[in-house]
Each structure stands twice: as structure tokens, then as C-alpha cells.
Amino acid sequence: MADKPTEGFWTKANVVLFAIFCVSMLLLLYLSIPVVLVSLIGIGIAVIVEPALSFAKTRFKIPRALTALLYLLLVAAVTAGAGFGLWYLVSDQVLSLWARLPELFVNLQSRLSNYPWLQEQLGKLNLGATARGFFSTFFRGVVTGFTAVSGFVFALVVSLYAAVALDDYYAAVVRAFPRLHRQKTAHVLSRCATTLRLWFRAQLIDMLILGCITAIGLWIVGVEYWAVYGLLTALFAIIPYIGILIVVVCASLITWASDPSQVLWVLAVFFVTQQIEGNFILPVLMKGQVELPEVPLLIIMLLLGARLGILGVLLAPPLFAIMKVLYVELYLPRMDGETDGVAT
Fold first, then answer.
1. Which candidate, 77, 72, 64, 78, places its Cα nearest to that of 45?
2. What pLDDT does residue 343 have?
């Protein structure tokens, strides 16, 4: 008897209208990709901070709107303080490196002349055009949506409003599904939210620890710009696999241009820190809950990066984590012949 309302809804006319609606929405989303991405960022932030708002309301009876505002002010203060502290730590090295860039570039060219075959290959590669094309693609997503002040403010506004009324939006989304599937829908949405929070927490801690141990390791072996490389490692660690590769290449080339005897030490430190991260840090942080298969993640990163630039690369891991939840919770049970109820 419970299936009759659902079957009555899915008449041919309603199916056609639903298909037209879906196609129209997909077309609208495609034509408004920057706005959609910024909105998704705002919703993601809201999902991450929602437990703090619920805790404050339950424990201290503080209204959710006031908690959201206080949370925003706290994050702004912490970010400003951390930025000032990092600049105080690395400013001397950054300014020194910037002043020496012409000299280092000349030294690098001179050392490349000792390897004619390598210089010939690099000449064929046309490094200037390649670099311009790479950075144009890489930062296109930043220019189109994320670093624009209006986009960033819009993401914050969306996150604040969404966090304050997230329970209402959650209930509305669940009610949009037929009654028979609401329990499963609620379960999947909760799993997606939990996965996103776990990923963000693990990523943040991993970036902090990896940046610190890299900087300490480079300082111990006497590498000149150890603080800069540690900071870059922490920042680029948010890009799986590719980010650390970029830092290693840059650090190796700069070190080769300034002090070739230190290049092997630089490579050794990065090798050791990656082993520490892969065998100790990540297993503790992830605990098998948000582990992402390497090959599909790299493919999604390349696809989104080619279309959206750096913003697509940054969004790939959390989106893939949510896709994995949907795959495990919805697709696999159906292939195994299970019911739509919540699997135990």
C-alpha cells in the first residue's frame, strides 16, 4: 500500500516533466559554474562548522546565528594571527629568495650547460611557453571564481546562512524524496556530511604536521630556505600527489642553483617526510574512513583541473570522497540485490 502514492506520481507526463526539469537545471548549472562552485564551497563550510553551532546551542544555549558570527570572527582572528606569525617566520627568507632569483636563474642556466643533452631537450620543450600555458591553466579557476572578493564574500554569506538553518535544509531535502526512500536518504546525507568533516579535519592536521616536519628536516641538514619550503609543503599538501611534486621540483632546482651539494639532502628529507606521512600520519588521521583510491582521484583531479583550474583541483578530493559514499551506499547495495533500507 505504501508504494501506491509513489507509483501514481511516476506517470508518463510527470516523468517527461521531471526529465525536462533535470535537463534545464543541469544546463543552468553548466552555464553558472563559477556561482555553483562558490555556493558549493559555502555549503561545504556550513557542513563543517555545523557541529560547533549545535554544540554551543545545546550546551550553552547560544543562538545559532550568534554562534555563527562568533565562529566567523574567531576564524578571521586565528587566520590573521597565523598569517602574521608565518610572515614573521619566513619574511626574511622570502625577501632574500626574491632578491636572488636573477642570480639563481643565471646559475641554473650555467649548470644546465654542463649537460648538453638535457639543455637540448629543455630547449625543444620551450620552457617559457610551457610555463606560461601551465600557469594560465592552473590559475584560471582562481581568477574566475575563488579569489575574487565578491565570490569569497558570497561563499561566506552562503556558509553563515546555511550553517544557521542547516537542519531545516536537511529536512527539506529528505522530504523531497518519496516516503519509502527517506530513511535511506537521511542516512546517505549524514554519511556525506561526516565524510566531509573527517576529510577536512584530516587534511588540515596533515598539512600542519607535514609542513612542520619538512621545515625541521631541511633546517637540520642546513638547507638555506628551509622555512619557505616548509610553508610551501604545508600549503600545497592540500593538492594530493601533485602538490608535493611541485614543491620538490622547485626546491631541488633552487637548491641546485644556489648550493648543488645540498640537492641530495633536499631529496632525502622530502623522501623521509613522505614516508612518515604515508606510513604514520595518514593512517592515524584517516583510520580507514576517508581513504581515497589513488588512480580515480588523480583522474578526477586532472578532469576538474583541466576545466576549472586550481579550483577544480582543490575541490576534487572532497567531491570524490562524497562520490565514494554515494557509490558505497547506493550503487553497491543495489548491485548486491539489497533493499533501499539502511544497511546494517
1. 72
2. 43
